[in-house]
Amino acid sequence: MATIKQIASEAGVSPATVSRVLNNDLSLSVSEETRSRIFSIAEQLQYKPARLKRMKQDQLISTIKVGLVMWSTLEDEHSDPYFGAIRRGIETRCEELGIGIDKVIRGVLKSEVTPLTELDGLIVVGSVDEQEVYRLYPHKDRVIFVNHDQTPDDCDSVQLNFGQAMKEVLRHLYELGHTEIGFIGGSSNPDQHREDGQHEDPRTRLFSELQQKRGFYNPELIYLADWSSNGGYEAMLRMLDDGHRPTACFVASDPMAVGALRALHERGLRVPEDMAVIGFDDIEVSAFLTPPLTTVRVHTELMGRTAVQLLLERVEGREITSHITINTKLIVRESSGTSR
């Protein structure tokens, strides 16, 4: 692709002169012979102005048809805003670019029988079975996985840096003197989790691995429930009823942590004096709980926007697979307490 600099070199004038001539700047004092020479060279080199390239790009974007596959249901999003925030990031970025979301599928894909081959790309949010995705949409180079725990190497992906998050959480608790640390995590099927280990949430796996490295791992302190405040409430009650009362507990989502805090309050246990609690998400209510919740701040809307950008790059011709990791930040508040 020819550039203004190349045209200037051929015409024997400055790049600024070429730019002003090609943009029909009538205030420029230049001979007709020079002006004609510049236009002739630009035509020979097949120069396309940046604005023309932008127009063509905008026309391409406006015709893109995108499909969205959500692991979560609307009820899931109501009880835990994590996936809803990712979806909003996708929708907002598509709206800004003029990209249409032509198809939205929620839950299990097996009920879908019509192929999605008319779409220009597919964004998959959550741990959806990738084989079911490929059955409906075989173009792997146009599939973007977001927050998928087993992303295929030949597809683009956007992930949270769960490793960084879990290391910061446990480092914080270790520095406060905690070694007996409980875990309350989410699972779509809590009863089967320990038997098959399929689609295990990264927080569950990383918590276990890091605790094992420190020699503090206790499988009896790991409880799974559904991703909701009620799930966190019931999991904490089970932990206490089983006679397990660690000095601290990490809860894998803030809505679950809300339920866990309620269970502790009902049992007359003080937070953080009797048990420190840390959540994950940093939803708006976290700072207004009693006590305010220490939690991991995640940039979920950025994850959604990044997925749209990756898909756009693929449509425009990028061939190399890209895996983007979004960092998190530990927000320390009163629920984790001070040094023991």
From TrEMBL:
Sorted alphabetically, which PROSITE patterns does this protein's record hold?
Answer: HTH_LACI_2
Task: Tell me which domain of life the UniProt entry assigns to the organism this sequence originates from.
Answer: Bacteria
What is the annotated signal peptide range for this record?
none
Residue ranges constituting the HTH lacI-type domain according to the UniProt record:
2-57
Q: Which UniProt keywords apply?
A: DNA-binding, Transcription, Transcription regulation
Please state what the protein is called.
HTH-type transcriptional regulator MsmR
Which gene is transcribed and translated to give this protein?
msmR_2
